[in-house]
Amino acid sequence: FVSLIPDIDNRSSKLGKKVKFVSKIFDHRGILHTIFPPIGLFILFNYLHYNLLALAIVVGYLSHIVIDAFTPEGINFLHPFTNFRISGFIKTGTILESILFLVLVGFDVYLFVKVVL
Q1: pTM for this structure?
Q2: pLDDT at 54
Q3: Residue 75: phi, psi to the nearest 5?
Q4: Among 10, 83, 85, 117, which residue has the least CB neighbours within 10 Å?
Q5: What is the pLDDT of residues 103-117, one digit of tens each?
Q6: For residue 59, which phi and psi values (nearest 5 degrees)?
Q7: Which among 27, 24, 2 is positioned nearest to 15, based on CA atoms?
Q8: Among positive and negative, which fits the CA dihedral 65, 67, 68, 72?
Q9: What are φ and ψ of residue 86, in 5° steps?
């Protein structure tokens, strides 16, 4: 679920369709595609003593923005403090994107098993 949050600023995304006002406030691939929201959420949930949930949130959120960093549009991890964009060659909806997604899901499962079990 958390991996869907960065695209909440896109009117055509699953969450963006439900909360359309967010796309009027934030530009797509702007502040919500940086390292700041997952860091803030991690700090908040750790403070509330939900350490495992904090880790899951960071992994889910970062998996989304890392995958977006591999697309030609790319992302700016430190927006608005710099204009430096990281971009790649994997187009959205291709087999390469699916492979990268599966690798990250595998990493998520590995972390879950290692931490929980």
Answers
A1: 0.79
A2: 94
A3: -145, 165
A4: 117
A5: 878 887 888 788 777
A6: -65, -45
A7: 2
A8: positive
A9: -105, 125
